[in-house]
Amino acid sequence: MLDRVMLTNDDGIDAPGMAVLEQIALEIAREVWVVAPEHDQSGQSHAISLHHALRISVRGERRFGITGTPGDCAAMGICHLMKDNLPDLVLSGVNRGLNLGMETVFSGTVGGAMTAMMLGIPALALSQAFTKRDDVPWDTARTLGAETIRKLLAIGWSKRAILNINFPPIPAQEVGPMTLARQGEGMLAGMFVDTRVDPRGMEYHWLNFRRGDIKQGPESDYTALRAGRIVVSPLRYDRTDNDAYGDLAAHLPRLEG
Fold first, then answer.
1. Does the pLDDT value for residue 190 go beyond 90?
2. Distance CA 90, CA 2 (A)
3. Taking the chain, what is the end-to-end CA distance rounded to the nearest angstrom?
4. What pLDDT does 133 receive?
5. What is the C-alpha to C-alpha distance for residues 171 and 125, in angstroms, rounded to an integer?
6. Residue 114: partners with Cβ closer than 8 Å, 6 or more residues away
7. Maximal CA-CA distance, the chain
8. 3-state secondary structure the chain
9. How far apart are CA 165 and CA 231, in angstroms?
10. Strand 2-8 versus strand 56-60 pairing type
11. Burial grade of 117 (CB within 10 A; 0-12, 13-18, 19 or more)
């Protein structure tokens, strides 16, 4: 049993996934702190607020809403609200929808966990996949979440990485074993701009992703999720591409030592 954990997310402090995460956390820790955005911050990645002030609203005992991003919440929790009694673990989620492949680059759920890791606290990002937007199978994450976290804590992992966990969109009793996977290519095939006109005749724009059936490669997270597994992928900040590095090394000098 952990002494204390801190929870954050990108869907907002009142999102159903946060209620699920609180239930999971109470099974693994004596003390649960919630430091989460006041409003939906999906797609904010690792962003932190440098050009405007942050405000805190007290939502209950050890429960705080922040007018900022998931990264802001991780920093506010670790560097301010819990600085005298740091959490043993940060959990970010449970996200409404999967976070796999290239989409992890944009994910605020992953970003909150990554910021916590950067500040020296082990962190997990948790997401619940769904097939119908109005019927998210929260019971799968709720039922399997605590057991999954306990197993990963028993194994341990590098301090330079977070673990990105995705629960498949099927009933808990049908879920296969927890499976290690690499970040795949994902399903993002591009972006498009949806332009509309408001009641005053002014144009406004929505950014949207275009998705496609893209080959994922070996041991990919998408392949594991489609097989009905709980998917675990270690992610880190270092995005150096070794193949490109090798190609460029034949033409550019490197600083030795």
1. no
2. 11
3. 44
4. 87
5. 20
6. 46, 71, 123, 162, 235, 237
7. 63
8. CEEEEEEECCCCCCCHHHHHHHHHHHCCEEEEEEEEECCCCCCCCCCCCCCCCCCEEEEECCEEEECCCHHHHHHHHHHHHCCCCCCCEEEEEEEECCCCHHHHHCCHHHHHHHHHHHCCCCEEEEEECCCCCCCCCHHHHHHHHHHHHHHHHHHCCCCCCEEEEEECCCCHHHCCCEEECECCCCCEEEEEEEEEECCCCCEEEEEEEEECCCCCCCCEHHHHHHCCCEEEEEECCCCCCHHHHHHHHCCCCCCCC
9. 5
10. unpaired
11. buried
pLDDT tops 90 at residue 212: no
Matching residue, tokens 């193949």? 243
The CA distances from residue 103 to 5, 17, 93, 240, in Å, are: 26, 19, 15, 18
Q: Measure the CA dihedral 107/98/236/83, to 10°.
A: 60
- pTM of full prediction above 0.85: yes
Q: Which domains, from first to last, does the chain contain?
A: 2-189+216-238 (3.40.1210.10)
Residue 202: count other Cβ atoms within 10 Å of its Cβ. Answer: 8
